[in-house]
Design brief:
Layout: H1 3-9, E1 35-36, E2 39-40, H2 43-55, E3 62-69, E4 73-80, E5 86-92, E6 98-103, E7 113-114, H3 115-128, H4 130-133, E8 140-148, E9 159-160, E10 162-169, E11 178-183, E12 188-193, E13 200-202, H5 209-221, E14 229-237, E15 243-250, E16 259-265, E17 271-277, H6 289-304, E18 311-322, E19 329-339, E20 350-356, E21 361-367
Length: 376
């Protein structure tokens, strides 16, 4: 397996960007009623929100707790009053076009529902929300249907605890695939079109000052990245639900080896993840633990400055990466840092630094918070 594949398989990390809850009235907000530092409501968002709330009955038990507005799209986070379970709605904040509804903390129900009943429920919701989705329901037909049993395995018969119905446009120009998931209680718990992702594309000139400062800091740590060409800049949530700048750079446009992926906190510009896709040094002997500790600490000081003193090395792991063949073995080390004192909740849960046998940096990961789905 190539080094880039191994590194990509390692847990992506970042800082969880959370905001203080901003509670809405039980019946849902009016335009401008609910806002955070990340943005405020538009009339189009407000209209779509109320339409979705009317079409999805279980949402009436949820209250709006956060709103994030990006360049084009917005994410509304809702929390159930009694259980604190989360739901999300993603839409275009200018037009109100709906992209995604999902119940993040949903529980699998044991009750089953027939394929035909689930299909009827999905079709009814497509009709209810066709204006919000920006489609005409009659222009869509069922592509295929997938059912899951209580063990999360493909259902073999006509009954399942979950059905996902994929709706395809009769004519390709009519739109993109839409899917709806229905549980055994007849509730729609997931609806998406166009992938349903909160991703906004940006130009380099649109990076704000914190992001520019963060990028300059990366260049200080890895000077050769200055000669790389930035090929894509996006903004959206990562696997820890943090809103981040995601910057992809390539030495030769169109070639991913070598290249770099940079993830910056959207509020502070702090580096959350840096992955350098490049060959590891051709050495089978890793650095000694003392040398690895010193090299990783030096990188940490470059990235965090004085804050680096708040962390200590908790573990050093030596492992083997592979080049073009299994016989092309290359030594790697992962150095894990944790807060030096336990009473520092503002610090990262851990920071991991990957270096090769010559001490070259390959990856930096900063973890604050929990993976989506583990946040309780």
């Amino acid at each position: 397996m190539k080094l880039s594949n191994i590194l990509s398989a390692v847990l992506l990390t970042a800082c969880l960007a959370s905001a203080s809850p901003v509670w809405a009235a039980a019946e849902g907000p009016s335009a401008g009623d609910v806002h955070t530092s990340s943005g405020q409501w538009t009339p189009a968002m407000n209209q779509t929100f109320h339409d979705v709330q009317a079409a999805i009955p279980q949402l009436k038990n949820y209250q709006v707790t956060d709103l994030y507005r990006g360049k084009s799209n917005a994410r509304i986070t809702l929390t159930e009053k009694e259980t604190s379970k989360k739901a999300e709605i993603i839409l275009n904040h200018q037009s109100g076009k709906l992209y995604h509804i999902t119940f993040v903390d949903r529980e699998t129900v044991s009750q089953t529902i027939s394929r035909n009943s689930a299909t009827q429920i999905a079709s009814a919701h497509l009709n209810k929300l066709q204006n919000e989705l920006g489609i005409k329901a009659e222009a869509y037909q069922i592509g295929y249907i997938q059912g899951l049993d209580e063990n999360n395995q493909l259902a073999k018969g006509d009954l399942a605890v979950n059905w996902t119905i994929f709706m395809d446009p009769v004519k390709p120009e009519a739109g993109e695939r839409i899917w709806l998931s229905v549980n055994g209680e007849g509730e729609v718990y997931d609806l998406a079109q166009n992938g349903g992702f909160l991703i906004d594309q940006y130009e380099l000139s649109e990076l704000d000052q914190p992001a520019r400062n963060g990028l300059e800091n990366v260049y200080t740590v890895v000077p050769e990245l200055k000669s790389y060409q930035i090929v894509q800049i996006t903004q959206g949530p990562n696997v820890f639900d943090a809103i981040t700048w995601n910057i992809n750079a390539e030495k030769q446009p169109g070639e991913i080896d070598p290249s770099a992926q940079i993830e910056l906190d959207v509020k502070t510009g702090d580096l959350l993840r840096l992955e350098l896709i490049r060959p590891a040094a051709s050495t089978k002997q890793p650095l000694s633990k003392e040398a690895a500790r010193a090299k990783a600490t030096a990188y940490l000081q470059q990235i965090l400055a004085k804050e680096a003193d708040s962390y200590r090395v908790s573990e050093i792991i030596n492992w083997t990466a592979f080049g073009e063949s299994d016989s092309d073995q290359r030594a790697m080390s992962t150095i894990i840092f944790v807060p030096a004192k336990k009473d520092r909740p503002n610090l990262a849960t851990n920071i991991s630094i990957f270096i090769d046998g010559l001490g070259q940096l390959h990856q930096y990961n900063k973890v604050v918070g929990k993976l989506v789905g583990q946040q309780k």
